[in-house]
Amino acid sequence: MKTNSLRAAVSLNRRNFLGHAALFAVAMPSLAQTAPWPTRPIKIVIGYGPGGAGDATARLLAEGLQKILKQPVIMDYKPGASGMVAADYVAKAPADGYTIHLIDDGALSIGPATRKVNYDPQAFTFLGSPGGLPLVLCIPPSLQVNSVAELVTWVKSNPGTASYATSGVGSLPHLLGEQFKSLIRAELTAVPYKGTGALLPDLMSGRVAFAFPASTGVLSHVKAGSVRALAVTSTQRISQLPTVPTMAEVGYPQINSIYRSAIVAPPGLPAAIETTLTAALQQITRDAATVSLLETGGFNVAFLPPDQTKQMFKSELQKWKALISANNLNLSE
Q1: Which single residue of 3, 50, 64, 233 has CA 20 to 30 Å from 165?
Q2: What is the pTM of this model?
Q3: List of E strands, the chain
Q4: Contact (CB, 8 A) for 196 and 167
Q5: Strand partners, 283
Q6: H or E stretch including 23?
Q7: pLDDT per residue over 216-258, tens digit each?
């Protein structure tokens, strides 16, 4: 009898143990889901190669996020197709907060306006915009004009021979050149190059009449006198070129586009993580030291919340589609 009672007790304890173990196993995913975010490194995807204009901005944002979120933020470069390769990757990534993306017009407005893309540019989880890179209307030192008005007069005096440089077919400098051409009703030839670095020698030597390079790529050349700046495309003057007017100030308020940046995450990001990341991004853009470093490099810091950021890129997409259609632009390479 004692033996049978002992066996029964052992069997009961074993069943109780297995039952509790099963309950614990079921509860584990729930416990993991309620763990505070983030608990591991975060990856920030960059749509261009190391050393590009967006790289310095991304590094400063990554450093700020590391301090606030107490986790490493790793740079992940996925260059190609003006940022659209990276955008397509992020659109398909898990929406867990561990993959975010510094994105710009190339993938959110200009690219989708000029070609078919494999993602919905409005479907990302928008976390906010830290600001953007103004472009600078530049001319060679040898061109004997001193204002945008004088440049327009010169262009009209040289019909069919005046040309402007772009950093590629369908790029923002190309579209701004076409917008300018439409506004002044003049004959101009677009000359595409593979990036700002490639066009600068011909701009400096006077082989092309003007260009709209990004501020980061041209500030040092303006200060050195190897190119001259006539206007900036931002709505306000930039601190690095305080005497250079905006395009609006010289009579062209329609030309107000910059390389706008945003931080996005894959579609469906949990609301709590979205709120945390947006608050962190806003905190970074209020840090005086970070703002100073960003603006020294030509970046214009002006934080926009998620809803306004999303609407901004939607409006830009519609604007470029309308420009392309109205001017029958052929954007094939």
Answers
A1: 50
A2: 0.80
A3: 42-46, 73-77, 99-104, 125-133, 136-139, 163-166, 189-192, 210-211, 228-232, 259-265, 300-304
A4: yes
A5: none
A6: helix 2-33
A7: 889 999 999 999 999 999 999 998 899 999 999 999 999 999 9
